[in-house]
Amino acid sequence: MAERASSYDFDGLMACARGELFGPGNPQLPAPPMLMMDRITAIEPDGGAHGKGKIVAEFDVKPDAWFFKCHFLGDPVMPGCLGLDALWQLTGFFLGWKGLQGRGRALGVGEVKFSGMVTPAVKLIRYTVDFRRIIDRKLKLGIANGVMEADGETIYTSADMRVGLFTDEAAA
Questions:
Q1: Cβ-based neighbour number of residue 104 at 10 Å
Q2: What digits encode the pLDDT tens for the residues 47-97?
Q3: What is the pLDDT of residues 17-40, one digit of tens each?
Q4: Where's the active site on this chain (predicted)?
């Protein structure tokens, strides 16, 4: 596994998407256009409200983004599921960064609240994932809360997000 950095630029995220960062069969980020971040700005192994870890990423919103062209024609807005997916993406990335092995899969979320939206006028999205628990036994599981901000205003919150890691044998 590559050295654990405390931040990653777009090239680092793409190395993860290609399976180069954590090795074959381990967590990978999706490639664009499903990659919903441009950089990871901070990773704290013992950070967050619960001391279990925290990861922060940013996404530069482009007014001509693919999702604005097809979601609510004439009323462009980023689908809420893409913001939630970004939080899951970061949850899986953090598990790989911690050295846990297996392919990441979103397993659910306890609660999601939307209090705003991303329109083409938004410039910057910031995602924060705060881990509540990490299980590293036969079951590899991250349980976390997430926040998504648009230009500094909290617009999505999620509680009890779950991402598991599975080996090819366990997935069969």
A1: 25
A2: 999 999 999 999 999 999 999 999 888 999 999 999 999 999 999 999 999
A3: 999 999 999 999 999 999 999 999
A4: 71
Which residue's structure tokens are 């997935």? 171
**Cβ neighbours of 107 (radius 10 Å):** 15
- Among the listed residues 71, 126, 132, 162, the single catalytic one is 71
Q: What is the pLDDT of residues 96-144, one digit of tens each?
A: 999 999 999 999 999 999 999 999 999 999 999 999 999 999 989 999 9
The domain of 126 spans 10-170
Residue 50 annotated to the active site: no
CATH number for the domain including 139?
3.10.129.10
Token pair for residue 8? Answer: 């990653």
- Tokens found for residue 16: 């993860």
Give the rounded distance of the alpha carbon of 78 from its chain centre.
Answer: 16
Domain count, the chain: 1
Cα–Cα distance between 57 and 18 in angstroms, integer?
19
